[in-house]
């Protein structure tokens, strides 16, 4: 590689770790769901300057985040075109503006886990250092005004324990779901400075399903009563759970293993104590979904000003 092609801005700093001796023995590594490979793409040249990664469920939202960030950082493309870098695949979408990478992850733990394996390898192969990663998303709130943004303190499973379980070779491996507390505090501070919407720090419950897994009464199947649902949500609330979504546990676990500074910022679309159906007007939904983007945008801008 021509050193000029290497987008790394610093040679020291905290690297992105992989823990897999087999990778060293492989001549090339194909990041299949992104449509990249170490043999076909110059990953340090393409991604070596990445310092912030923002991930979220929908490809459309991640493109809109990139447009928003580009404007905030005055890095707008004169043609205002942000092509999907993963154009060779329709599994995930990826956009980049300056040091900010934006990637979609689909819905649920398996989908985000596949994306994170490849994203972590991508950042590692690209020799990125000091990377901060934030999941921006939507959630159901417990006892919060809809539109409130929750910055996750700890991600919990559906039994209110702060752990992520993965079956590997038929054995259950338990991983820790700690997130970076100082990053969470800095994001909360950004919200105070913005003073545009309510933001709280609290625990987030991560479930395997949107309907029965989140105690909804409106799925195709339901074998419990409204009282059972309320009792369960009350227990969640007593365990410090402020909101419910479907990816934070594996996100926290994998980011911790790879040494990434990570946070989860989700807006609540409804108060689950008052209902299950998402019947908010499209414009309201859209404005709520912008809130995590605004918060993370403010944080990135502040960090870049420091350097
Ligand atoms: C939040 O919203 C999605 C379900 O509607 C899911 O991906 C999540 O975590
Ligand atoms: N996303 C979820 O996972 N649950 C909700 O209630 C809303 C959004």
From TrEMBL:
Catalytic reaction(s) noted: uridine + phosphate = alpha-D-ribose 1-phosphate + uracil
Residues given in the record as substrate binding sites: 214, 216
GO MF term list: uridine phosphorylase activity
Domain Nucleoside phosphorylase: 51-291
Function: Catalyzes the reversible phosphorylytic cleavage of uridine to uracil and ribose-1-phosphate which can then be utilized as carbon and energy sources or in the rescue of pyrimidine bases for nucleotide synthesis. Shows broad substrate specificity and can also accept deoxyuridine and other analogous compounds.
SUPFAM superfamilies tied to this protein: Purine and uridine phosphorylases (SSF53167)
Keywords: Glycosyltransferase, Transferase
Sequence positions that bind phosphate: 91, 135-138
GO cellular component terms attached to this protein's record: cytosol
Catalytic activity, EC: 2.4.2.3
Pathway assignment: Pyrimidine metabolism; UMP biosynthesis via salvage pathway; uracil from uridine (phosphorylase route): step 1/1
Protein name listed in UniProt: Uridine phosphorylase
Classification via Pfam families: PNP_UDP_1
Alphabetized PANTHER family for the sequence: URIDINE PHOSPHORYLASE, URIDINE PHOSPHORYLASE 1
GO biological process terms held by the UniProt record: nucleotide catabolic process; uridine catabolic process
Family, similarity comment: Belongs to the PNP/UDP phosphorylase family.
